């Protein structure tokens, strides 16, 4: 099988496919100083590529417009379509890597979904921008250039799905948007970034110990929908309304975005427990954004038959639970998955 390694070994430039989905990287504003209040998802993939002629120096690049949306509108169906396209392309011997241009609001979710369902070791890089293409010092062109460099690099093979922004390489599992508007918004919590793109090449320093891509048990090739999993957010004075409404609306799984170490308020615990008795799988996560939610810590998970999210934030826990529910309803198995991926 040809891959980026053989592209380099054969002395040819890697073939990188850019799948465009929209977002600010494809956004346009009224003036060059418009950095908020612009319209996302306007510029087509051919123009994104044309705007960075330097790409030709590092890869043979082709583009496909998969969607043209702001990423707050990303749905499970979009993910399944995208994942199937990525798997089809990566199965081709002449494709060495893939770059996905994406809105930044849900980049971390799409990246983690792909990290769990892409069946290839070839590099997949998700990239976006915080400033629209029309802005002074737009970050899209350099981010796209860096993403293509990484996607065509043999050093990125087998590292899972990556998010490349602001000269930094992050693992899909651990990266999150941490600032609403600034270009240094993507951070990998305390677990740390994987490396940098500096001097026209990626530099890797670490990898995640969690399984991904070819080493997961998830297969989307025959899926046309995913089980309904929703998130109930907790705060001081919260009641059971959201949990009860989500269960009534048909949730098969619920992520509880608890306070602190995933604590359950007294007014929420009975609603979650009743949901579990109806067969809904409950995962305790935390709204804090860093750290482990400890099993049998702030709640007796063994007795309640709940699962803990480990270090996944609520939106990523939702993705893993959806995929877990395509395989099993057994909470012990699902807890194993949360400690594996
Ligand atoms: N910086 C961005 O990409 C945000 C734009 C838009 N809300 C999106 O996520 O697509």
Automatic annotation (TrEMBL):
Cross-referenced InterPro entries: AsnASE_II, Asp/glu_Ase-like_sf, Asparaginase/glutaminase-like, Asparaginase/glutaminase_AS1, Asparaginase/glutaminase_AS2, Asparaginase_C, L-asparaginase_C, L-asparaginase_N
Keyword Hydrolase: yes
Residues annotated as the enzyme's active site: 24, 104
Domain of life from the UniProt record: Bacteria
Span of domain Asparaginase/glutaminase C-terminal: 228-338
Keyword list, A-Z: Hydrolase
PROSITE patterns: ASN_GLN_ASE_1, ASN_GLN_ASE_2, ASN_GLN_ASE_3
MF-aspect GO terms: asparaginase activity
Residue ranges annotated for the L-asparaginase N-terminal domain, each copy included: 15-206
EC supergroup of this enzyme: hydrolase
Family: Belongs to the asparaginase 1 family.
Protein name: Type II asparaginase
Organism the protein comes from: Massilia pinisoli
